[in-house]
Amino acid sequence: MTQSDTVLVALNDGVLRLTLNRPEKLNSFNEEMHLALRAGLQRAHDDADVRAVLLTGAGRGFCAGQDLGDRDPRKGGPAPDLGHTLETFYNPTLRLLRALEKPVVCAVNGVAAGAGANIALACDIVLAAKSAKFIQAFAKIGLVPDAGGTWSLSRILGEPRAKALALTAEPLMAEKAADWGLIWKAVEDEALLPEASALAQSLAAGPTLGLGLTKRLIQAAATNSLDAQLDMERDCQRQAGRSADYAEGVTAFLEKRKPEFRGQ
């Protein structure tokens, strides 16, 4: 597992907190931070003690996307193979994030630009400080949205708004992003981390298997037919119904007490 101070990792009460930690660069990605974030997400997959993830950024920004300092054309040399960058670094991380059958909360504490915005949008529940903004900055440097951006924007917002954001690179403030349904909610800046932490803690104390199956179902619904989705619901409900958490949930309901889920 990669250890790096470019991503701070802390596990408390079932919540794995991953903090992007290059604040002097607005948490833009270099190769080290790519690998550190992927290692954190892999730990979330592998460690049964992790029952929810909280992703945020250090300093005044969430993530400004790719660090362009290493891509300066003025230094000469061959043109970069950005497809290789995506296939080697971004795409594996996005696939891990979407495949993780545990809730992922993202707290966007400042600017989320380029791939930084799209990594946030790949999380399950996104809260943003009211001062935060989302920018599809790719058009400003002659690139296309990546890190799943064309996929997320089109599915969440529809083609007209997705095209407008991508083609103009116009910043979208957090409150409008919430109004449009792009994120869960915008909160006062000082309330962001307390509220996101409380939400992640609540999810970590929940029935992890059932929450993970719910995530799987919702992600599949966009491409499934109704018949396929009904079959998938049947199969997932069968699995959930055999879990210890389901037995505990029903028992707690009948006994009029708070359930104590174990994530099993």
Question: Features of this protein?
Answer:
2 domains, alpha/beta, 2-enoyl-CoA Hydratase, Chain A, domain 1, 10 strands, 264 residues, six-stranded mixed sheet, single chain, four-stranded mixed sheet, Lyase 2-enoyl-coa Hydratase, Chain  A, domain 2
Structural class call reads alpha/beta
The number of helical runs is 10
The N- to C-terminal Cα distance equals 25 Å
Largest sheet: 6 strands, mixed
Oligomer status: single chain
Q: What is the C-level CATH assignment of the largest domain?
A: Alpha Beta
Average of pLDDT: 95
Number of domains: 2
CATH fold-level label of the largest domain? 2-enoyl-CoA Hydratase, Chain A, domain 1
Rounded to the nearest angstrom, the radius of gyration is: 19 Å
> How do the helices and strands follow one another from N- to C-terminus?
EEHEEHEEHEEHHEHEHHHH
What percent of the residues sit in helical stretches (DSSP H or I)?
Answer: 40-55%
Indicate the CATH architecture of the largest domain: Alpha-Beta Complex
Strand numbers in spatial order across the main sheet: 1-2-3-5-7-10
Outline the structure in words.
Helix content is 45%, strand content 16%. The protein folds into two domains: 7-204, 2-enoyl-CoA Hydratase, Chain A, domain 1, CATH 3.90.226; 208-254, Lyase 2-enoyl-coa Hydratase, Chain  A, domain 2 (Orthogonal Bundle). It contains ten helices and ten strands. The protein is globular and about 70 Å long. The two termini are 25 Å apart. It has 264 residues and is α/β, with parallel strands linked by helices. The chain has a six-stranded mixed beta sheet, with helices on both faces. A four-stranded mixed beta sheet has the order 4-6-8-9. The chain has helices at 31-46, 82-99, 115-121, 149-157, 159-168, 174-179, 192-204, 208-221, 226-241, 244-254, and strands spanning 7-12, 15-20, 52-57, 61-63, 104-108, 111-113, 125-129, 133-135, 172-173, 185-187. The longest helix is centred in the middle third of the chain and has 18 residues, at 82-99.
